[in-house]
Amino acid sequence: MSDTLLTVTVMAYLAAMLLHAADYAFGRRGLVAKALVGTAGPPAIEETPNQEQKRSLPVGRLALGVTGIAAASHLATLVTRGMEAGRLPWGNMYEFVIMATFIGVAAWLAIALLYPDVRHIGLFVSLVLVLLTGVAGLVLHTPVGPLVPALDSYWFVVHIGAATLASGLFLVGFAATVMYLLRAGYDAGKRGGLYPFGRYVANAEAVERLAFRMHAFAFPVWTFAVAAGSIWAEAAWGRYWGWDPKETWAFISWIVYAGYLHARATPSVKRRTAAWIAIIGWATMLMNLFGVNIFFSGLHSYGGV
Amino acid sequence: MIPFLRNSWRWLTSMRTALVLLFLLAVAAIPGSLFPQRTIKVEDVRSYYVEHPDLAPILDRLWAFDVFGSPWFAAIYLLLFTSLVGCLTPRTRDQIRAIFRPPPAAPKRFERLPHHAVLESAREPSFRGWRKRRQVLEDGTVTVSAEKGYLKEIGNLLFHFSLLLVLVGVGIGSQWGWHANRLLVLDEEFCNTLQQYDGYGLGPRVSASDLPPFCLKLTDFEVSYQDTGMAKSFEATVNGDQKFSVNHPLRLDGANVHLLGHGYAAVIKYTDAQGRSQTTVSPFLPLDDMLTSEGVASFPDAAKQVGFEGLYLPTNGMGRSKYPAEDDPALMLLAYEGDLGMDAGIGGSVYKLDKTRLKPVGEAKMLRKGDTWALEDGGKVEFLGTRPWITMTIRHDPGQPLVLAGAVLLIAGLPLSLYGKRRRVWWRLHPDGTAEAGGLPKTDYPGFAEEFAKVTRR
After folding, report:
1. From the CA of B247, how many Å to the nearest CA of chain A?
2. Cβ separation of A209 and B446 shorter than 8 Å?
3. 1-20 in B: which are within 8 Å (CB) of A?
4. A-to-B residue pairs, Cβ atoms closer than 8 angstroms
5. Directed axis angle between helix A93-114 and helix A154-187, to 10°?
6. Does A240 contact B403 at a Cβ distance shorter than 8 Å?
7. pTM of the model as a whole
8. Average pLDDT over residues B379-384
């Protein structure tokens, strides 16, 4: 049941992604519309969100609606998985990815409803969601099973819960950062690679601010997740910190994101430089999630592949 | 010389340097996850030496197997913390001054501020919750300065000082802490002295006599498994009534006892041709999750020295164990005789036979519980059964409370620092009833325009 729902979820994210792409291509602000009106070059960034909304075709809103349906199916996947296992569904890597991506999509939907002018980054968010849930379903999938005794602790809920929440928030922050870099790069005259897509991002400043807020929200949660993990490690293994590969990479991510927040707060550091640090931060998160579980063996190995 | 030092200090305490050091610290931690670390698993370092005999000594000289204790790692974090102190000292001084000093007087021209408003008529604002200063000038003009958001910098300082606290706690733990490991078979007892440990590590400021006195006797050990063979629960009992398990250590005065692993010890009785018998309890080490275990039993006091290599299967299934509980236990033994090498005084492993002066005798034999095996030379072996054993780590880390306090304060300071907003608002009320107001956000605060509008609307 849960596995079928996951397939539905991935398909729905895929549909949402295609709709977002269609919105870029055929919406009022899209390529085709531009060609018809004959206005080449970057869209006017001084547009206010309200005007923009009135003018856009409903494809964008439809894409958001489909994302909502996908999120509902995503939640159902988690709930049924939890019911089948008889416990909270975050006992192995498969479940962790499903959980973290759900937090990500929930945070994203909240943002999209509150701030309509950043909705277009949904293309990138849904792309990341398709990839992560797809990888979870195809590569990481593990049959339902009970927990090993080492995980049977209330710290399990606290530690994994916080780590999942932080990962989901960092995910949205990452998506916004990529969109910001495309737009800022485009504005700075870059035309190679993916930069031409930057012109579909309406407002570099709004997207950058969203990215910062996500990271500023996620960082304390991540700090708490690491601290809670230390308290649990002290009870389970006798030491609060032992440089286990997972701990080492959690430390690395923490340092990199701390670097981002400092760089963001320092006027002499360019916003784009700070944004690149956030991108590195997400890379270290992915390394911790996938790389460490696959390449290294350590005390966190029951995460499983 | 002085200008050079001053410039170096300025360079070290600049944000740019701090960012570079932060980044270096992250990069420096990576080899710690790529190479096996002595502090985590020393056996992995040994096998790395076997697999890469040329590369390993070079890496070792670069501290690749002790990354987190290496001088270059220490250099980075010590520079970073020095930079931090250099940055915190003036900021703390400024913050204390700001707390004791009222907000600055109103500037002459409000139009130069990022936000300003002119009002036709206004009453004096109350500024509840703001820190304020009211001045009446000679011509009857009233100015009010108000400031808010002091908690941002307080949270910021709290966060960074907490990092220092964590570092001090870690340092105290590594100097005055100690840890030791011990394998203990059911019904055996050991006391907290270094001689009775299988392995230990003492901080530089701990001596053997500092260990608190206690003795532990394993009186019970319960384990249950799921159908898949995965463990469901463990519980060890020592000294009759003190229970501990995974996630629930035994907290003693001055040391914590953590349950790490478990297995079976084979109880084997050997009687030589002259009828002298000896019984050993030999812990067998698990090879897999189903507790297929291997070990040795040595009988140096027999007429001819005899040793056995053994493979224990709690649930017998084609040379491997099928299930970790003892549903169908079987012990495979291979006998050796000759010189066990124990008289030479070389401390060999208790889990391996030194076969240099031993020769195998006959074929391997499978024994059930209670079976007796008559050897060719007239001796006999009896498999009496098994007893469970546990492995424990016993630790004391006096820095732990400080690290915990540091972590709690750090997490408390972080949101204040990230979400706090410092801003100032000034009012000037002219004697003719008109008024003007100006606002200055001291930090990145996009919502200030709204707040300023609200303050001036009244």
Report:
1. 4
2. yes
3. 15-16, 18-19
4. 120
5. 50
6. yes
7. 0.84
8. 93
In a domain, A71, yes or no: no
The CA distance from A216 to the nearest CA of chain B, in Å, is 6
Mean pLDDT along residues B33-51? 88
Residue of B45, B41, B43, B78 lying closest to B64 (CA atoms): B45
Per the domain annotation, does A278 fall within a domain? Answer: yes
**Nearest CB neighbour to A223, from listed B23, B30, B411:** B411
Find residues 130-159 of chain B whose CB sits inside 8 Å of chain A.
none
Q: Which residues pair with B200 in a beta bridge?
A: B180
A118 part of a folded domain = yes
Task: Give the type of residue at B49.
Answer: Y
| Region A75-90 average pLDDT | 85
Whether A3 maps to a domain, the answer reads: no
Within an 8 Å CB–CB cutoff, is residue B246 touching chain A? Answer: yes
B344 touches A: beta carbon within 8 Å = no
Q: How confident is the model at residue B268 (pLDDT cuts 50, 70, 90)?
A: very high
Domain ranges of chain B: 2-97, 106-148+422-457, 178-396
For residues A59-77, average pLDDT:
89
Q: What is the pLDDT of residue B388?
A: 96
Burial B269-281 (b: 16+ CB within 10 A, else e): bbbbeeeeebebb
What are the pLDDT digits (tens) for B136-147? 988 889 999 999
Contact assignment for B22 to A245 by CB distance below 8 Å: no
Q: Residue A267, class by beta-carbon neighbours within 10 Å (0-12 exposed, 13-18 middle, 19+ buried)? A: exposed
How many domains would you assign to chain A? Answer: 1
DSSP at B279: E
Is the ipTM reported for this complex over the cut 0.90?
no
Give the residue numbers spanning the domain of A95.
88-303
